[in-house]
Amino acid sequence: MLSPHLIPEADYIIKDIKDGVITTPMRFSAALSELLGCNLYLKCEHLQRTGSFKFRGALNKLALWKNRIPGITAASTGNHGMGVARAAQIMGIEARIFVPANASLAKLNHILRMGATLEKVDGDCLAAELEARRVAAETGAEFVSPYNDPQVIAGQGTIGLEIYEQLQDVEVVYVSVGGGGLIGGIGTWLKHLRPDTQIVGCWAAASPVMYRCMDAGRIVEVAERETISDATAGNLEEGSITLKICKHLIDRRILVSEEEIHKAMKALAEHERWMLEGAAGVAMAACMKDAENIRDKKVAVVLCGRNITLEKFRAAVA
Question: What pTM, to 2 d.p., does this model score?
């Protein structure tokens, strides 16, 4: 049960989604442990189906709603779109993914391979989301939010349960923050099972949206710059439930520069032979920046995804 006191009306019951979700490994990194002076474990969510954690939340949402909806809509050209498409394919539900007309063909092909219908929309990502919501309301389909949904958050939270089962005495956990669904789910489980675990929120300094909203105590518009961590970029929608959850659960917050993210991505490639996306680099970069505070501690870094092109990765680590 995921801390119902945060949102009393939410249905936090996690369905049995083990047949679809991979229990991703928790790997000890001897090289990075030596480098940082701690006992460092990597939660390998980049090995999840579709290459990111987003699949968990989407599958949990559809498992809970299967018998009540004629179909689903979502808006995403990346990890969320792929996660929703694959979950819908498994559950036998029709999925329509709305995307900007100028979206990358490579990204769209990934979604198409998972059986979803693509709907191109003139305009940006916000225009695609508004159209997805409009169609859902018009047809009776369910709009699947990437983060602003208690059932999606509950699905992401299964990572926190796995971390506890794999490393019960973990002291510090680093998680990248975008909309807040990932850290909200992970933090809720860990605070329930091991209250002393420190939850560290990690942001690209170029896109500190939830960070600034937490400072303001409300959802505000935040200016952003381009970042390699595109999966965590974007402003919060009004009324997002994740702001309250993040304020309650996050113990410490760290901002990292683009250079620090690039160095972290390179370190993971050099020491672990993994080519990971910028959002995963954010959590690793925050851990590296925080080395003085985690001396001799047992630490976990959530590597949230691997979906990055070779060209983009090579440019980042060059």
Answer: 0.93
The answer to the question of residue 13 being in a domain is no
Q: What is the pLDDT of residues 80-125, one digit of tens each?
A: 999 999 999 998 899 999 998 887 787 788 899 988 999 999 987 7
Whether 114 and 163 map to the same domain: the answer is no
116 lies in the same domain as 45: no
DSSP labels for the chain? ---TTTSTT---PPP--TTTS----EEE-HHHHHHHTSEEEEEEGGGSGGGBTHHHHHHHHHHHHGGG-S-EEEE-SSHHHHHHHHHHHHHT--EEEEEETT--HHHHHHHHHTTPEEEEESS-HHHHHHHHHHHHHHHTPEE--SSS-HHHHHHHTHHHHHHHHH-TT--EEEEE-SSSHHHHHHHHHHHHH-TTPEEEEEEETT--HHHHHHHHTS---------S-GGG-SPPPTT-THHHHHHHH--EEEEE-HHHHHHHHHHHHHHH-----HHHHHHHHHHHHTGGGSTT-EEEEEE-B----HHHHHHHH-
pLDDT above 70 covers what percent of the chain?
93
Whether residue 164 lies inside any domain: the answer is yes
We report the CATH number of the domain holding residue 281 as 3.40.50.1100
Residues 154 and 134 in one domain: no
Residues spanned by the domain of 75 = 70-140
